[in-house]
Specification:
Elements (H helix, E strand, L loop, with lengths): L5 E3 L10 E2 L5 E6 L6 E10 L4 E4 L3 E3 L2 E3 L2 E8 L1 E19 L6 E9 L2 E4 L5 E2 L4 E22 L2 E8 L2 E11 L6 E4 L17 E2 L3 H11 L5 E7 L6 E10 L24 E2 L11 E4 L3 E7 L6 E11 L3 E12 L2 E2 L5 E8 L9 E11 L5 E9 L2 E6 L8 E6 L5 E2 L8 E2 L1 E6 L7
């Protein structure tokens, strides 16, 4: 019986509910029985720490390289800050020294090759901390804004202008940024937008990615999962669960071929005694004439095969043997079973009688009186008769066109059409 699917850390211990860092790449392993595929896999990751760190980074500005920590003011028009790695920025604090009544700054964040405005607004006031949803960034650009004037009249519109700044602080969350999930060294199949939140995020596409790797490594019992982050901020494996696809059903044992349809099954017992086989009298079966033998129920066993002593009258004879249940003194209109037959004779004029054997597709239990009817569609045959009807044969009949079924008029006082009946697990025939 297969064990559960497991997720383990680099130390081989279960990874669930544990904290990790992945700046250098974290390799987890998914334990799966060899050759098995995953029906589903659910992995949830979340930031381990949401606390905020405040930094006063060194600035490059139009006033030179400065660090604004509140001790001295510097008049700026623009400045940029680079803190060296992708971090989750949650706010800015800019303190102006003796600011004009209306002032502010326009901020841009740089992430993965793009400068983007701070959301939800890119124009921020000075004097207090301005917070916003965490955004991944490694650099900041600010442009100072002051109120424009026409002559000596203030317009109320902020325009780029010099502003004396004494403090510029950036607030960074401990949430991991730039997280990617990949299988081994393949390209990442999962990259969430922005910093990893404190609320668990499900890694989508995990089962598909692991099954793709399993297709290339069917006997591997450890599927490698590689997680990377931009920095050393910790994350936690909140949950992991997975299930295996059900095993395919075992192959069915080979079914022995049914054997030729014109031979009896091994182990059959004759249910009727042999006819004399010496009479030259027969009943014609062609497109206008049919013949039948009426038989009682088979008390024990199941009908397996039947054989008629026939002689073809043409080179090709095609017909049908039908088993009908009795409906009073007549056969039911629809046959219980129909079997096609074909006889080929090179020289019909010299052809001798022979036994035509027909094996039923499956042994058939017959608990009531039944008829065996021979009908010919193409050509003609003679079905040979016998003067001494055995006790198990009820009667023999013939029919012309769609007329009534009439009893045989010879040979002898109890004629019957020669027939062999093979039954499985039955009492043998008696003479």
């Amino acid at each position: 019986m297969d064990g559960p699917v497991t997720l383990c850390g680099p130390d081989g211990l279960p990874a669930g509910k544990r904290q990790f860092t992945a700046a250098d790449g974290l390799r987890l392993t998914v334990g799966v029985p060899p050759g098995r595929r995953l029906a589903y896999a659910r992995l949830q990751l979340a930031a381990a720490d949401g606390s905020v760190q405040t930094i006063q980074p060194a600035l490059q500005s139009d006033a030179g390289d400065k660090t604004l920590d509140g001790n001295a003011a510097v008049t700026l028009r623009w400045a940029t800050a680079d803190w060296g790695e992708e971090r989750a920025v949650t706010g800015l604090t800019v303190i102006a020294d003796n600011p004009p009544p209306r002032n502010g700054l326009r901020a841009r964040l740089f992430n993965r090759g793009n400068w983007l405005p701070v959301m939800p607004l890119d124009t921020l006031p000075t004097g207090s901390r301005q917070g916003f949803p965490p955004q991944s960034a490694s650099r900041l650009s600010v442009e100072t804004l002051v109120e424009g004037k026409v002559g000596d009249t203030a317009t109320g519109v902020l325009i780029p202008g010099p502003l004396a700044i004494k403090q510029l602080s950036i607030h960074l969350s401990q949430q991991p940024c730039g997280l990617t999930v990949a299988v081994d060294d393949d390209a990442p199949f999962f990259t969430p937008d922005g910093p990893l939140p404190l609320t668990p995020v499900e890694v989508s596409g995990l089962a598909r990615a692991l099954n793709r790797y399993r297709s290339d490594h069917p006997q591997s019992v450890s599927l490698p999962l590689l997680i990377r982050c931009a920095g050393h901020q910790a994350f936690v494996v909140s949950a992991f669960e997975a299930g295996l696809e059900p095993l395919p059903p075992p192959p069915a044992p080979p079914v022995p071929p049914p054997g030729p349809a014109d031979t009896a099954r091994p182990g059959e017992q004759p249910w009727l005694p042999e006819g004399q086989g010496s009479t030259a009298l027969a009943r014609l079966c062609d497109s206008h004439h049919a013949a039948a033998v009426v038989l009682p129920p088979i008390e024990s066993g199941a009908l397996s095969s039947i054989a008629l002593r026939l002689r073809p009258l043409g080179q090709t004879t095609r017909g049908q043997l039908c088993i009908h249940l009795a409906n009073g003194a007549l056969p039911q209109q629809n046959p219980l079973l129909a079997m096609d037959f074909e006889l080929l004779a090179d020289e019909p004029s010299t052809a001798a009688s022979a036994w035509l054997t027909a094996r039923l597709p499956a042994p058939q239990t017959l608990a009531g009186t039944w008829w065996l009817v021979c009908r010919v569609r193409e050509g003609a045959v003679l079905w040979y008769a016998d003067p001494d009807r055995p006790p198990r044969v009820t009667d023999s009949r013939y029919q012309t066109a769609d007329g009534p079924w009439l009893p045989l008029d010879g040979p002898g006082e109890a004629p019957w059409l020669q027939l062999r009946v093979g039954v499985l697990d039955a009492a043998p025939a008696t003479t």
